[in-house]
Amino acid sequence: MKIRKYIRIFLFLLLFSLLLSLFVPSDARIGGWVKIIYFHASMARNSVYFFVLAGIVSLISFFKKDLLSWALGFESTAILFWIIQTILGFFIMKFVWGGFLFTEPKVILAATILFLSLLLILMVDITRSVNFFRLSSVVLSSLLVYLLLNAKNVFHPTNAIGASPSLLMKILFEVITLITFFSFLFLSLWFKEEERGLKVQSRV
Q1: Is residue 143 a contact partner of residue 116, using CB atoms and an 8 Å limit?
Q2: C-alpha closest to that of 66 among 2, 130, 135, 140
Q3: With contact defined as beta carbons under 8 Å apart, do 182 and 15 qualify?
Q4: Per residue in 181-195, pLDDT tens?
Q5: pTM value?
Q6: Are 35 and 172 in contact (CB under 8 A)?
Q7: CA distances for 151 relative to 45, 65, 93, 146, angstroms
Q8: Given 46, 89, 118, 173, which residue has the most CB atoms within 10 angstroms?
Q9: Are 201 and 72 a contacting pair, CB within 8 Å?
Q10: Do residues 173 and 42 make contact, with C-beta atoms less than 8 angstroms apart?
Q11: Which long-range contacts (CB under 8 A, 24 or more apart) does 178-182 make?
């Protein structure tokens, strides 16, 4: 019953953040697409947070082994939503930018992390090795942070929401992001308790 509650809370919070995104005023330049961009950006930001959380907890789990299940939950959530936000990003690129700009650094970054995430899923499924998962999680999160810090923007706007002159728009985005963060947290709890998502041979 408690585990089912986690998934219900996750769905409620995620749908609530989507609903809030629909209340974002349309943009004069890109129209109603800004609503989807807000939701996409909140998922992208929280996916990064959960990759980093997974990497940190995986590193600590080398010494405090009972944290491994948390690392698996965080990593499963991060990968799932990185896949979703990357696919959504391609739709936004097509309809807002007018085409698929595969040379855009942020697009290359998203595709690189997507590929490495899928490779991590495959290799963890094959090896079921605890230490392989731990090391892969640390490396993937470190690489993601490095790429984000060094990625340049060509067509992709640099912090378009943060640069908005509207304080209300900025606050609304932070609220949406915070709600999405807690939805991710409850999904991670569900992955952890149900032992869904990424699995290793032993958790000790």
Answers
A1: yes
A2: 130
A3: no
A4: 999 999 999 998 877
A5: 0.88
A6: no
A7: 15, 34, 17, 9
A8: 46
A9: no
A10: yes
A11: 179/13, 179/16, 179/17, 179/20, 180/13, 180/14, 180/17, 180/42, 180/43, 180/46, 181/46, 181/49, 182/13
Which residues on neighbouring strands pair with residue 27, listed in sequence order?
31
**pLDDT 10s digits, 135-185:** 999 999 999 999 988 877 655 555 556 555 567 777 888 999 999 999 999
Closest CA to 59 of 47, 49, 71: 71
Nearest to 25 by CA among 44, 16, 38: 38
Q: Is 24 exposed, middle or buried (0-12, 13-18, 19+ CB in 10 A)?
A: buried
Q: Record the tokens describing residue 112, joined without a space.
A: 């690189």
